[in-house]
Amino acid sequence: MIDIDVELDRAGLTNPHVREYVASWAEITQPDRIEVVSIADDARLLEESLAADEIQPAGEGLYYSRSHPKDTARSEERTIVATADPADAGAYDNWHPSDEMKPMLVERMRGASRGKTMYVVPYLMAPPGSPLERYAAGVELTDHRTVVLHMIRMARVGVEHVNDLADPTMFVRGVHVTGDLENLGQGTPDDQRYFVTVADERTILHYGSSYGGNALLGKIAHGLRQAAYDGWRSGEFLAEQFMLIGITDRETGRKYHVCGGFPSASGKTNLAMMLPPDSLGDRYHVEFFGDDIAWLRVDPTDGRIYAINPEFGVFGVAKDTNEFTNPTALAAVAPGTGTLFTNVAYNDETHEVWWEGRTPEPPTELGGWRDWKGRLISERGDGGRDEPWAHPNSRFTVTLAKVPNIADEYEDPKGVPIDAIIFGGRTRDREPLVRAITDIAEGVYDGLTLGAEATFAAEGVEGQLRYDPMSMRPFMSYAEGAYAAHWLDVIGRATDTPIFAHVNWFQRDPEDGHYLWPGYRDNLRPLLWLLQLRNGEVSGTQTPVGIVPKREELDLDGVAISDADLETILTIDIGRWRQEIEHREEHLEGLPGLPDAIWQAHRRVAAALDD
Ligand code: SPV
Ligand code: MN
């Protein structure tokens, strides 16, 4: 039996409740060694991982890792929220009784760390000193060193974050066991994986993966699922899959903050890291706060909604990241940043990395290049042409501080006041460039009816949305009715309410399919209009589904768009909207216990469309 106390003493981990929790799980998983880590251990852990060939060098201060080929993404089917109360079951949270789930997880984890090290990762999911700090402390126990390297980049890691808690029992208890990835039946009826958040016990038990949100328990298991549940139970805050940016108008000296949700593959990271278009670059400065999670609360001093990004880093999708789509991200992963790339293509000889969309064509000199599975491209038989080199969910992991336009106040414990909350999906028709919503219930209703378009027949009916309320579908941790009521309550308590808006960068021409709006940097233009609308500087045109810009209200200096295309993206297609309302009705009926205010908002919009 290992002497746990010796290691906990060495690391200065003094919280008796954390010590007890570590000891009780060590008894279950039975590791050979135990090691408490902090950010100061990063360099040593990198050296050890390189020596053990778990990661490879990818240039100066850059690293590369491959995951097991059967373990490359979050699994929604295997992700479960468990509590003691069946009323927590919603349409999306995959609720199971906790007294059924816990013994199953303990069984799978028993003895699973024999021969391995159990890393103890104490962390904080908030800037230190935040009013929400009491919900932010956690400890992840993991058997995987690469997961530790990721956690050090994605969360604030160190014993100081759990030693002196106001309530020493108030930390999230996370246990991550990788399991035998070769033999877990991933994706089969006999799938052995379980990713369980026991929300009413603030316990997270993940078994059967070492990838992303399946394994970095601070990020979405704690930062979204657990935090959403805590925010609701306490009544204090919302935890959402939102990006968060700041926009400064140098001419007026005013500073604005915008947060918002976008289903995956809708360009959320690109938007969060956006630079202003050249013609507006002198006047406006855009700052990055976060690309994936925001916690929102009402501040009693000024009655405004304040947001923090609880994360410490970015776990960004590599695919299609390039000088045009996201120059900020490329600068953030440059040499010397400590970036860890996962499942991109890697060159054994030059230590370069590459992914689809990094350059229009893959490297022509194939020598040394291996795909994400480790196969030499030159020996693949397709000359590198047929199968992708990088996995579509390949990632870069880097701390926020390395993002060149990171906001000065990103660690401000208070957070930043929110002016606008936006939602956006990938929609080829119907959704205009931007429509603003000033009524709170209609704004929340809009978030609840957010969706991403089904892209091919297998995913659903063409033109019909896969609804993804607030972009939280994979992260819901209690019933949607209560979730909507909590939104109405928190935003309703603000005395200075943010404006809501729905945005869409992806309208296409029905004939030739070209995108009507150039997107990327130019996306700042509709956001500026939205902020001007909130300030009363423009008035827009009221439509049944919100306020759209009059064309002369948008600053379009230097934008390549035809008059006809502009007309289309600023116009409401009433026929298509009536169709959508019917789909929405069905969608809302599937969300149990929605508040009356949401149904009334729905009926108001439907009636306005029929006028
Ligand atoms: C997402 O899938 O929305 C992510 C990545 O942010 S993961 O942390 O793996 O969930
Ligand atoms: Mn995400």
Automatic annotation (TrEMBL):
Substrate binds at R74, Y211, G212, G213, S264, N393, S394, R395. Residues 237-605 form the Phosphoenolpyruvate carboxykinase C-terminal P-loop domain. SUPFAM superfamilies: PEP carboxykinase N-terminal domain, PEP carboxykinase-like. One of its GO terms (molecular function) is kinase activity. One of its GO terms (biological process) is gluconeogenesis. InterPro entries: PEP_carboxykinase_C, PEP_carboxykinase_GTP, PEP_carboxykinase_GTP_C, PEP_carboxykinase_GTP_N, PEP_carboxykinase_N. Residues 20-231 form the Phosphoenolpyruvate carboxykinase GTP-utilising N-terminal domain. Its main location: cytoplasm. The active site is at S266. Pfam families: PEPCK_GTP (PF00821), PEPCK_N (PF17297). Pathway: Carbohydrate biosynthesis; gluconeogenesis. Its EC number is 4.1.1.32. GO terms for cellular component: cytosol. Keywords: Cytoplasm, Decarboxylase, Gluconeogenesis, GTP-binding, Kinase, Lyase, Manganese, Metal-binding, Nucleotide-binding, Pyruvate, Transferase. PANTHER family: PHOSPHOENOLPYRUVATE CARBOXYKINASE, PHOSPHOENOLPYRUVATE CARBOXYKINASE [GTP]-RELATED. This is Phosphoenolpyruvate carboxykinase [GTP]. The lineage of its organism: Bacteria, Bacillati, Actinomycetota, Actinomycetes, Jatrophihabitantales. The gene is pckG.
